[in-house]
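Lecture notes, unit on binding sites. The following record was shown on slide 14. It pairs a sequence with 4'-deoxy-4'-aminopyridoxal-5'-phosphate.
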Amino acid sequence: MINKLSQKNSLSKKHTQSYRQYFALNRNVAGFNTQKKELIYTLVSDKSDGAFIWDIDNNKYIDLTMGFGSVLFGHNYMPIRKEIEAQLAKSWSVGPISPLAGKLAEKIATTTKTERVAFFNSGTEAVMVAIRIAKAITKKKYVVFFKGAYHGTFDSLLAIKKNSQTNIAIESIPGITQSILNESYLFEYGSKESLNFIRKNKDKIAAVLVEPVQSRNPSFQPISYLKELRNVTEQNDIALIFDEVITGFRINIGGCQKHFNIWADIVTYGKVIGGGLPIGIVAGKSKFLDALDGGSWQYGDYSFPQVKSTFVAGTFCHHPLAMVASLKTLEILDSYNGKMLQELNNKTAKFCLRMNAYFKEYCPKLSIVHFGSLFRFVTPGRYKELYSQLLLNGVYVWEGRNCFFSEAHTEEVIASLEEKIKLSCRQLIERSISKTKI
Ligand code: PMP
């Protein structure tokens, strides 16, 4: 397999090698081990359309990565591309505020039933700001977050272990020092222990940050726990933050808030709503968003910003190209009145059912889990080789392994995908029989 893939992806590997000295890209060492060294590279591609990408060797793949979940309608989607091109012809300058930003804020607020909205460049930035405004308004310091969640790369959330006595997140990544983590408390998602801790330390906790359905564990959907979290935070002046960077505008237009009918204080969005361009959004109750600008006031009277503001800024925060792509994304989603996402979710559920039936019969260690149109293969031990086998057979899954269907994944594309998965599975088993047991 190593030889075959090295041949197939020879230009991607050559490209990776020739720039490595200058281009420090962590994805090029993801999962590094000396035995699999030859398989450690990221596919290099500059062509995509619909549900497909092409690498620089001109191999075509069914794309399951879909811009890490940022591309909902398919690559190179004409209605969005046209809006971006039209805006490009007008202006892509920043400095003054684009007239599109206010309009988009209003549309997002009404669509997501939030009161106010602010724009940033990435999900990471949105999460960072959400925590900052929670601390500013509650005047408390601690943040509770959960194992298994991914919230981007904000320093105070980059920990996977905790002190078993204090529950303080402990340093495990070079550069993330303990003092940065000392206000971060890490718990098992869904645990009673976390609820007890929150009740006991209510006077110190500013925010509970939760990825309502974790992309790394999408079949775990703890609705009653989330309801309890909502109650305990509401009763104790703690901001409940939903990180909906993946689930927002995907599970349905109102995200997990609407899906579970549980309403957070602050919500972060990104990915889908940017129509494929960089965006991060903080939305939520005025009580918290007012920390960004002091709250609402009018000209021509004696009103003034009443809330003491914290500080945020960013050169590209309301980039006109991102604003226009977002507006078009919302307009398209609106025009389907929820049906498009529902159908995409159903399509994914049926695909997972069929694949799981196949796996049960022919490869019982493998399975697929999903939440709406996000899914993941469960690949214990050496079954992780499935991803290389898929690549060989023309299916692209990135190193983080979250998979997404888009509107462009038609029944025909999915039927072809299923054949490729089955073939990969058979090859995996054949290879393992000819070697050792897997
Ligand atoms: N939150 C969640 C739930 C995410 O999945 C991600 C990225 N995958 C982020 C935050 C960070 O977003 P970004 O990569 O745009 O910084």
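Take-home: DSSP finds 15 helices and 16 strands in the chain.
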